[in-house]
């Protein structure tokens, strides 16, 4: 009986690291959303608005997770462009606009480092750094070569 070998494409370390960074970015986004939701509930936000936001974010983060897991991780070329367009431009811009706007309207002395503020800042920092790392690793020479094969 003849043995059949299946060729398995092994991704380079940079592609695996990019996958991890994209997962970290999505996870940080989920964590930020959960924190924001809990704060909104605490502040008495209308339930209908919260349900709509949860539904939208569930679809968004679920879809991004699927793209990273089912496509990017396996070297499907369009997935890296989709992640770059959605998370690397629009997503990164939305992550940075809030802090930048706050900084332009306040002085550092206005900071109130409560535990919630520190948690928000840590999550946002992790989120931003994960996206930047994912972008750099996604377009690393070895990752690019792997996506092209």
UniProtKB/TrEMBL annotation:
Tree of life domain: Bacteria
Membrane spanning stretches: 21-41, 47-68, 80-101, 121-139
Keywords, comma-separated and alphabetical: Membrane, Transmembrane, Transmembrane helix
Protein name: Uncharacterized protein
